[in-house]
Amino acid sequence: MTHYLALALAALRLQFATWKQYRVDYTAGVLTVLLEQALTLVLFSVIFTHVPQVRGWTFPEMLVLYGLNRMALGLADTLGESLWWVGSYAQDGSLLLYKLRPLGVLFQLLTERIHFERISGCLTGLILVLHGASAAGVEWTAGKVATVLLFVLLGAFIYLGLMILGAAVAMRVIGSLDAITTLWSLTEFAKYPLPIFGRTGAFLLTFVVPLALTGYVPAALLLDEHTRTAGTIALAEALVAAGAFFGLCLLAWSWALRAYEGTGN
Amino acid sequence: MIPYTANLRVGFQLALAYRRAAAVWVVGELALLVAFYFLWRAVFLSVPAGSFADRDFAAFYLYLLTARLAARFTGGPAWGFFAQRVRVGTVVYDLVQPVELEYALLARWLGQKAGQLVMALPAYATAAFVSGAWSAGEWRLGWFFLSLVVGFACAYFFEFLMSLSAFYTSAQQGINEAKALVVALLSGAFFPIDLLPDRYALLASLLPFQAFIYLPARMLQPSMPESEIFRGLAVQLFWLLVLAASSRFLLGRVRQRFNVQGG
To answer: What is the pTM for the complete model shown?
Structure first.
């Protein structure tokens, strides 16, 4: 464990030095994060210029939900970006090199390229949360701050799990460089309030792919107006479901990696 | 002509060879459509009159279905056409081929996309039936597919132009992601661009991106009058000429300055 920690710190230092050298990439990366968020905000503003609320959620409340979701995603994206490449590594056979090294493949991939610019997604998410909460009249307490921090961390793990699962699929379905992109489509559900998906959707998004924990649940707990609806979700069970989801994603990864035999010579 | 038809065939067969990949993609796309279905149904339920910006839900959802289909058909490769090959130098093989590079690549890419479209169409048709969007359509399928192909060509030449940036900078990831998002926002891939506030809608209507998705997707909308069809196609053809000519010009510049270290 100490060995891995030392290696992780060394990788962090190295990646930070490398990252500083590629200023154009950094600027474009930040721009990408901002544009990605702008895309959803434009969609929200288009909707809310025509309607005052969607299923009881107003524009500022949606900003809180979306901001929390982006904070979790920003954290996961900073570490998990290399997982998007697993499909092409599997296709050209270079993934075999990772398997031969005396280190966990997942660890190597996670520390191979750390995208520090993605943290900007966290910061802009935080700005959205603060702005939305202020407009929605949220009174901050220590408990609410702790709730936000806990769920952002939890959400980052859920997103990372989804990336790992996508990478596992990409490893098995050769030619599907889009496998992670495909699974990523599921994250669209995380941007909106759970009640709009009906009971079945709410169950699936809480206990099967627990994306509700990345935005909706913490937002509802933060916004007094919606706390009651969030209370109907069995939080302890949802947290167990999130842990189980992450564990299953890791199992899928191990299975895919064990079965991967390279591309031959 | 033979190299181009051969490329078209190769592209089509390539798409069919990766059937499982196409299936994975269709599943993801359907997930996105389901999410949109619930979001927009909730929005329409929140409008007292039941119509949103003079559209009913079925027609609106039909737009989203066709826009997503067009987005898939016109979408470029995630990392552009040349990034990796420029980095390792093998792009020189592309540049010295005795064919027009942009048209050979266009043929192969068209074949590949046509193969994917053939495999994905049943999923979209099913989604249209299940959601009830089918009933709202004005089924001008001939015009729709014509517009889709012209939109594909516009998107291809835009992608080709952007891919040429690989000859000038290695910072490809940020450029590609930023490009994808600008296209997604201004092409109408997620909602009709006429829903944007006036000044932004005007801006979007002056840019080429509407030709990729918005104009083809509009072809099946009941609110689209016949006269608008020709106007839409004319706009698409205009952008096709501009983008194709720009690609030819920039590729010429690249050929003049590009130098591969051999030995």
So the answer is: 0.83
User: Is the distance from CB of A161 to CB of A168 less than 8 angstroms?
Assistant: no
d(CA A42, CA A49) in angstroms, rounded, equals 10
| DSSP code at position A82 | G
Closest CA to B13 of B121, B115, B142: B115
Distance CA A143, CA A148 (A): 9
What tens digit of pLDDT does each residue of B81-122 get?
Answer: 888 888 888 888 888 888 888 899 999 999 999 998 888 888
Residues pairing with B55 in the sheet: B52
For residue A180, which amino acid is it? I
Helix (H) and strand (E) counts in chain B: 11, 0
The reported pLDDT for the residue numbered B15 is: 84
Give the ipTM: 0.79
Please, are residues B213 and B151 in contact by the beta-carbon 8 Å criterion?
yes
List of chain B residues whose C-beta atoms are within 8 Å of the C-beta of residue A188: 31-32, 35-36
Domain boundaries, chain A: 1-259
A50: three-class secondary structure by DSSP? coil
Distance CA A264, CA A242 (A): 38
Of A35, A49, A189, the CB nearest to B178: A35
- Residue A204, Ramachandran bin (φ over 0: left; ψ between -120 and 50: alpha; else beta): alpha
Instruction: Report which DSSP code applies to B99.
Output: S
Chain A (169-188) residues lying within 8 Å, Cβ to Cβ, of chain B:
169, 173-179, 181-186, 188
For residues B114 and B101, what is the distance between their CA atoms, to the nearest angstrom?
20
**Residues present in chain A in total:** 265
Half-sphere exposure of B77 (CA within 13 A, CB side): 20
Residue A24: closest CA among chain B residues belongs to which residue? Answer: B171
Q: Which of A153, A154, A152, A144 is nearest to A240 (CA)?
A: A154
* B117-174 tens-digit pLDDT: 888 888 899 999 998 888 887 888 899 999 999 999 999 999 999 999 888 877 777 7
Residue-level pLDDT at A12: 83
CB contact under 8 A, A55 and B32: no
Contact B251, B102 (CB under 8 A): yes
Residue that the structure tokens 């098995």 belong to: A172
- Chain B contacts of A31, Cβ < 8 Å? 174, 178
DSSP E strand boundaries for B12-130: none
